[in-house]
Amino acid sequence: MQKLILIAGPSGAGKTTISEYLANKFNIPRVLTHTTRPIRPGESPEGSYHFETEASFKKLHFFEHVKYGSYQYGSSREALENAWLDHDIVSLIVDIKGAASYLAAISSQVYFLYITTSSKEMLAERLLKRGDDPHKIKERLSGSELNVLPDSLKKDAHVLINDNWQQTEKKLLTIVAGLRKTLN
Ligand SMILES: Nc1ncnc2c1ncn2[C@@H]1O[C@H](COP(=O)(O)OP(=O)(O)OP(=O)(O)O)[C@@H](O)[C@H]1O
Ligand SMILES: Nc1nc2c(ncn2[C@@H]2O[C@H](COP(=O)(O)O)[C@@H](O)[C@H]2O)c(=O)[nH]1
């Protein structure tokens, strides 16, 4: 049975870094979602999202979608099915609401990886270093945007504390080996 590594967690925790590592090291591609937010400095227009206008976003058919501030984000079941045509394991980055939607719909195929750090300060430091606007960082690291793991999803989550990259690499190796054993 094909698997989806569903990645969620607070901004700056390392979700994108981990999905890129899974792609490069284990040939586990990321299923891109769609957003109306602008491209960040240093972000590739092909690598992280399908960047949409409000008009083009409205024409798409989403499995689930959310709004952060004035920007929309959404993912489709078709994109996932397409990715599974070529790869038995794929990854997808969503927020906590998106994770809940996927778990409700296809939990047997989902490996829910919740990425975080042991402190909020570490998240802020990384986002500052990444070049994010300090006002946006404050927004991202408070309220619902913080993407705290709710009690209702704790039983489904595999929590990975990404404080130290070498340890994260080791944990990912174990996770991928375990998932590969469950295929078929
Ligand atoms: N283990 C780590 N140690 C130090 N820096 C890290 C680690 N993992 C990721 N980073 C760095 O932290 C920054 C944030 O990582 P990344 O962009 O992957 O986070 P994210 O969770 O995808 O954030 P967002 O939700 O805002 O897109 C990046 O500059 C990345 O290089
Ligand atoms: N529910 C969904 N959440 C999504 C989707 N694509 C991305 N995201 C999440 O949005 C926030 C903000 O992302 P950023 O790239 O602007 O930092 C983050 O939590 C993403 O995981 C989606 O299709 N559905």
TrEMBL record:
InterPro entries according to UniProt = GK/Ca_channel_bsu, Guanylate_kin-like_dom, P-loop_NTPase
Annotated protein name in UniProt: Guanylate kinase
Q: Does the keyword Transcription regulation apply?
A: no
Entry's Gene3D superfamilies?
A: P-loop containing nucleotide triphosphate hydrolases (3.40.50.300)
Q: Give the residues annotated as coiled coil.
A: none
Protein role: Essential for recycling GMP and indirectly, cGMP.
Answer yes or no on keyword Kinase: yes
Q: Please name the Pfam families in this protein's record.
A: Guanylate_kin (PF00625)
Taxon lineage: Bacteria, Bacillati, Bacillota, Bacilli, Lactobacillales
Alphabetical list of PANTHER family matching this protein:
GUANYLATE KINASE (PTHR23117:SF13), GUANYLATE KINASE-RELATED (PTHR23117)
GO CC aspect terms:
cytosol
Question: Guanylate kinase-like domain: from which residue to which, for each copy?
Answer: 2-177
Entry's Gene Ontology molecular function annotations: GMP kinase activity
User: For this protein, what reaction is catalysed?
Assistant: GMP + ATP = GDP + ADP
Q: Which organism is it from?
A: Lactobacillus kimbladii
As for family, the record states: Belongs to the guanylate kinase family.
| Record keywords | Kinase, Transferase
